[in-house]
From TrEMBL, chain A:
Gene Ontology terms for molecular function: nuclear import signal receptor activity
Cellular component, GO annotation: cytoplasm
Gene source species: Rhynchospora breviuscula
Summary of the function given for this chain in its UniProt record: Binds specifically and directly to substrates containing either a simple or bipartite NLS motif. Promotes docking of import substrates to the nuclear envelope.
Keyword field contains Transport: yes
Protein name: Importin subunit alpha
TrEMBL record, chain B:
Protein name in UniProt: C2H2-type domain-containing protein
Biased composition (Low complexity): 282-295
Cleavable signal peptide: none
Basic residues composition bias: residue spans: 174-189
Transmembrane segments: none
Limits of the C2H2-type domain: 101-122
Regions of compositional bias (Basic and acidic residues) in chain numbering: 190-211, 247-264
Organism encoding this protein: Rhynchospora breviuscula
PROSITE patterns cross-referenced by the UniProt entry: ZINC_FINGER_C2H2_1
InterPro entries, sorted: ZNF511 (IPR039258), Znf_C2H2_type (IPR013087)
Region: Disordered, residue numbers: 174-269, 282-325
Length: 525, 325
């Protein structure tokens, strides 16, 4: 604290400090250190972006002993667990109707027991809790003026129920306005954070619930909570917000960008040291940039882009790089402003972006490679200078390599990039895009053809289509009419002829057109 | 195939078929496009949430260590809550001493909800306006701005427009005991600051126990005679469940004949003038809490600690009844 004259003795204050300062970090560390094996249910929950709350958000962790798995309730049979849950719910019910002196305390104890069942079990007995009538009781426990501990435990129970399936989450509808209200600035910050977590889980379920939460006014208080000085609070609020705005309906995203100073807040958080917070906020930018044209327009003109680029270059964390990369990808894809006015060739930031993207190409992570290629392909769709810049960089050998050897979805993106490098932004008199021969020739000589022919053979129609269109480029644009020969050398004719009787009409037409035009009767004559 | 259209155009080759020549253009994906699926999954896999294995015992011990060390208590008279660290004080102060109603001690998580509560439950002026048909009931969702004429219609608005569950109730049934209310009532009429503070503190300290009292209270209006009706109405206007107040107003106008109705209304208005001066002296804790706090259970350890939020408050103004058109 700031102004204390007569502070406690050094050893005491040091002791206290060490406990306090550990709260934020060790919680995060714990998460990083431990991994739980994920069953199918949990995986489904992941796809729906739910997060089970197993540990207290403010629990102190000076006691490292607690890290081993042993204390989890894993050997309890599901039926026993369900029975215990039903019983605990009954206890909660009776404590709520109890009117004696210790009613609040009894209620808190019952809630705590329920909370533990819902957080320490391998498979939380969510269904049993709901069947037992927990939800209306929890709603009662969340009423205004209840003791903080009661609110906290109740919100925690709701959080984990909301981590369940669609029906289970929807059963929490009566609780939603209360959760939103308890985000308020007068609430204990722990209560507010736990409520944010619960709401994040609800929002993660589906668009319908997101709509309801939005209509009930969850956006504004969550945004305010994101401004908190407490990192865990800001992080949780940002995550919940990202779930709230993720669409596909853009209305929440559109509303968020209208909040005053939101861009400044985003920039500020993207610059912090706390990588987890940066990650969650970056996800917010992902959705803003994917759904809201207004947001795109604002973001591309703001400091968000340079900060994202910095992060792209400087970070080693996969968790962080994914949303950072995707935000940039969305922005580049949506608005020409970025390639034309921000990422101008010659500017430092442009070199940095390229560096960052190449770094991702070199990584071993599939997602990073694929999405970096996507961004690169869109930059390559920019000006002639952009194409030349990429062409002259160390990206090319990587691209050719990826085109040949990577999984098909990555090969496809590499193909787009290479193709875009070879095709100009302008069109010739024949109304076809100009072919940049000075790029095309070296790329073919560099060995990209086999990869493209291979793509034509792909089971994925879109990949095959890309392959065919590139082959057309080569055959049309390679100097001295050498194109067809080169294609033939790579078994291109064979690959194209496979489409002769293909069920897809466009593919048939495309392939046949090319074969007829370039390998027709007078070929080789 | 449609996703390809952004990339390739289809001019006619003159062969009846338009070959889609390569066009270098940006490709954009919607957020739920399968393209992003693996990245989305990765996000959640990486955000692992871990089982905590601190037992009850360990947690308790930790707390005890803290408490033994600091021995901090909230200095607000009558509160006495135990605090774990100095930092907790601000949180506690904000929660317990700043968003509670000085009349009935209800605590709200936002200032806005508190002020809505005060208007609707403790402000006769508010009720008078309602009786005259002004839309006084604010929508609870911040930013909406709608005002409704009755508690019920506000409820309906919340359900229809903001998709609140039909079970939602802004007012729970918990009430201070009738004795408490009447005690406050008398104090309000006299308009004494210090006494308000004191009585508030009483309530605050007793808040925990109050919550466990029977939560059901029905107005005894139907049993009262005409003379007592007046004072009963004031009591109820100030402190009752607004729904009850509203129904009461409605049944009043329905059950009585014209003359009695006018009479009652006039009396209410007269009384209101008297009450207003009393009400204006009611305040929330914002004004009655000390602006600086010091604590420490040993004299040698006297911190002068001012919560940030209090320090920021330059002017602490008393609460005025909200005047709405």
């Amino acid at each position: 604290m700031a102004s204390d004259d007569s502070s406690p003795s050094p050893s005491h204050s040091h002791h206290r400090d060490s406990i306090k300062s550990s709260v934020g970090n060790t919680a995060a560390n714990r998460r990083r250190q431990q991994a739980i094996s994920i069953g199918k249910e949990r995986r489904d929950a992941l796809i729906r972006a739910k997060r089970l709350c197993r540990d207290s958000i403010f629990e102190d962790d000076n006691n490292e002993k607690g890290l081993d798995e042993g204390k989890m309730v894993i050997d309890e049979e599901q039926s026993v667990l369900n029975a215990r849950t039903a019983q605990t719910v009954q206890e909660l019910k009776s404590s709520l109707s109890y009117q004696g002196k210790d009613a609040t305390q009894k209620t808190i104890e019952a809630l705590r027991a329920l909370r533990k069942l819902l957080s320490k079990s391998e498979v939380p007995p969510i269904e049993a809790a709901i069947q037992g009538g927990a939800v209306p009781l929890l709603v009662q426990c969340l009423s205004f003026g209840s003791a903080d501990e009661q609110l906290l435990e109740a919100a925690w129970c709701v959080t984990n129920i909301a981590a369940g399936g669609p029906e289970e989450t929807k059963s929490l509808l009566p609780a939603l306005p209360l959760l939103i209200a308890h985000l308020g600035e007068k609430s204990s910050v722990h209560v507010a954070e736990q409520c944010a977590w619960a709401l994040g889980n609800v929002a993660g379920e589906d668009m319908e619930l997101r709509s309801i939460l939005f209509a009930q006014g969850a956006l504004l208080p969550l945004t305010r909570l994101m401004l908190s000085n407490r990192e865990s609070t800001a992080r949780t609020a940002a995550w919940a917000l990202s779930n709230l705005i993720k669409g596909p309906d853009p209305k929440a995203a559109n509303e968020l960008i209208r909040i005053e100073a939101i861009t400044d807040t985003i920039v500020k958080h993207l610059k912090t040291a706390d990588e987890e917070l940066v990650t969650e906020v970056a996800w917010m930018v992902v959705y803003l940039s994917a759904l809201s044209d207004k947001a795109i327009s604002i973001l591309v003109r703001s400091d968000v882009v340079p900060v994202l680029v910095n992060r792209l270059v400087g970070s080693a964390s996969l968790q962080l790089l994914i949303p950072v990369l995707r935000s940039l990808g969305n922005l580049v894809a949506a608005d020409a402003y970025i390639t034309h006015s921000v990422l101008i060739v010659g500017n430092d930031i442009t070199d940095q972006v390229l560096y960052g993207l190449i770094k991702c190409l070199k990584s071993e992570h599939r997602v990073l490679k694929k999405e970096a290629l996507w961004v690169l392909s869109n930059i390559a769709a920019g000006t002639l200078e952009h194409k030349t810049l990429i062409f002259s960089s160390e990206a090319v050998p990587l691209l050719i390599d990826l085109l040949s050897a990577a999984p098909f979805e990555i090969r496809k993106e590499a193909a787009y990039t290479l193709g875009n490098i070879c095709v100009g932004p302008t069109k010739g008199s024949d109304n076809k895009s100009d072919i940049i021969v000075t790029h095309l020739v070296p790329l073919v000589k560099g060995g990209c053809l086999p990869g493209f022919v291979n793509l034509v053979r792909s089971a994925d129609l879109e990949s095959a289509r890309v392959g065919l269109i590139f082959l057309e480029l080569v055959m049309r644009g390679y100097p001295n009419g050498e194109g067809p020969k080169l294609v033939e050398r790579e078994d291109g004719i064979d690959a194209m002829e496979r489409f002769q009787f293909h069920e897809n009409q466009e593919m048939r037409n495309m392939a046949n057109t090319l074969v007829d035009k370039y390998f027709g009767a007078d070929y080789g004559v | 195939m449609d996703s390809m259209d952004a990339s390739v155009a289809s001019p006619d080759l003159g062969l009846g078929f338009g070959f889609p020549f390569w066009v270098a253009s940006r490709r954009r994906f919607k957020p739920d496009d399968p393209f992003f699926a693996s990245g989305n999954l990765e996000r959640e896999l990486l955000a692992k949430h871990v089982a905590l294995d601190l037992t009850e015992d360990e947690h308790f011990q930790l707390q005890m260590m803290e408490i033994a060390d600091a021995n901090l208590f909230c200095p607000i008279a009558g509160c006495g809550s135990r605090l774990e660290y100095l930092e907790e004080f601000e949180d506690h102060y904000n929660t317990r001493h700043m968003a509670s109603c000085s009349v009935c001690s209800r605590v709200y998580p936002t200032s806005r909800l508190l002020s809505i509560h005060i208007s609707e439950v403790h402000d006769s002026f508010f009720q008078a306006k309602v009786a005259r048909g002004f839309p006084m009931y604010e929508c609870l969702v911040e930013g909406c701005g709608a005002n409704l004429k009755s508690y019920k219609s506000r409820q309906r608005h919340l359900i229809d427009k903001h998709r609140f569950p039909s079970s939602f109730e802004f007012y729970k049934k918990a009430h201070p005991s009738k004795h408490q209310r009447q005690k406050l009532q008398r104090k309000a009429y006299k308009g004494g600051d210090a006494k308000d503070h004191e009585s508030f503190m009483d309530l605050d300290a007793k808040k925990e126990s109050k919550q466990t009292h029977p939560k059901h209270y029905r107005p005894k209006q139907e049993l009262k005679t005409g003379t007592e009706m007046e004072s009963e109405m004031e009591v109820e206007t100030k402190l009752h469940h607004p729904q009850t107040t509203e129904t009461k107003v409605e049944t009043n106008t329905e059950a009585k004949n014209e003359k009695a109705k006018t009479e009652t209304e006039m009396e209410v208005e007269e009384r209101i003038d008297d009450i207003v001066s009393g009400i204006s002296k009611l305040s929330t804790v914002d004004s009655s809490s000390p602006s600086s706090v010091s604590f420490g259970h040993r004299h040698s350890r006297g911190f002068a600690f001012v919560p940030r939020s209090v320090r920021n408050q330059n002017q602490v103004s008393k609460r005025e009844p909200t005047r709405k058109p």
